[in-house]
Amino acid sequence: MVNRTRLALRSSHETDLKNMLFHCDNLECIDYLIANGFENKVDLVYIDPPFLSGERYFHRIDNDSSLAFEDLWKQSKYLEMMYARLVGIRKLLSSAGSLFIHLDWHAVHYVKIMMDRIFGPENFRNEIIVKRGRRKNLQYQFDSIDKMHAAYDSILWYSKSSDAKFSLPLAEHRSEAKWMGFWSNVNRPTMRYEIFDFTPARGQWKWAKERALKAIGNYRLYEEKFSQMTLEEYWEATGKKLEFIRKRASVKYAEYWIPPKTHRIIDNVWLDIEAYNYSTGYGTEKHAELLERIIGQFSKEGSLVADFFCGSGTTLATASKLSRKWIGCDSSPAAMAVTKKRLGSANFEVININ
């Protein structure tokens, strides 16, 4: 049995908090944390619960395999199980905290309704679509099918508070500078004004007049005094802040300049990364790139991250890599063995609740 006073003291001094790996039923872990001072302390929770798939999952090493866990729930019992845990997780989340629940088509719609009830629909942020990866479509061998191949999972993102704000989620993406038409067919009369001796009769210019006139002036100054360098070089030399609009005689409408980009803003369709990896032989191992995006984008260094269905330990290993504190839990001996091996020399304490 862990010393309860010592654990509560750690929770009130986050800088001294040790990473904790619980080997027990996760509801016991959640209740234990609430009782020991962790309510409103966790900044991000990612969970990958059973999918209500009706399958058994194995841990495979070379030619040997052992049962990791069973996902053989009846729907009513499954939803009861999830409800109790989600209520507890909400208590643990900090005021700016987020919960990411990884599911697929078997249960995501039921859990979405449940989450609206527990967290409030105003705290639903996104359903994120992530591709499954190397799971092959085996339907080519059949002449007919009863349903299409499932190629994606869903991750439901909820916040503790609707007031919580997050930094722009960015992914590395290189794009070259280019010119684009400054006219849009969106019909807004207030955005139709004269530039280059022309006022559009329909549609609109893309920017407000003051901004557009300033960008026109920026380009004219470049042409008059700095055209010995490329526009991109001039933009970089002036602090990467200036905007430019030009008018070419051969083109009907004015054009605005889009600078080169090294990143793009991520939307909720994540087809550039995969949901699953197979490095440990654990049947439901999630890909480190997936957890790096979630933890890296939606928490900060030093934040406390938790995974109460930690399985092969991807969340915990990634949290350590990204300088976050973490709490993990799983009841499966196979999961615990894989996670401990994966964490290696990381500083953490194993806790068994009796």
Report the CATH C-level class of the largest domain.
Answer: Alpha Beta
Work out the count of structural domains. 2
Shape: elongated
Number of strands: 18
Give helix and strand order, one letter per element, not per position.
HEHEEEHEHEEEEEEHHEEEEHEHEHE
Query: CATH topology of the largest domain, anyone?
Result: Rossmann fold
Main sheet properties: 9 strands, mixed
Strand content: 25-35%
Q: Which parts are unreliable, with pLDDT below 50 for 5 consecutive residues or more?
A: 1-6, 8-13
* SS element count, helices: 9
Topology of this protein?
Blueprint: H1 4-11, E1 19-23, H2 26-35, E2 42-47, E3 55-61, E4 64-71, H3 75-92, E5 93-103, H4 108-119, E6 124-131, E7 152-159, E8 170-175, E9 178-181, E10 183-184, E11 204-205, H5 209-225, H6 231-237, E12 245-246, E13 255-258, E14 261-265, E15 269-274, H7 288-298, E16 304-307, H8 314-321, E17 325-330, H9 333-343, E18 348-351
Parallel strand pairs: 1-17, 1-18, 2-5, 2-16, 6-15, 16-17
Antiparallel strand pairs: 3-4, 5-7, 6-7, 8-14, 9-13, 10-11, 12-13
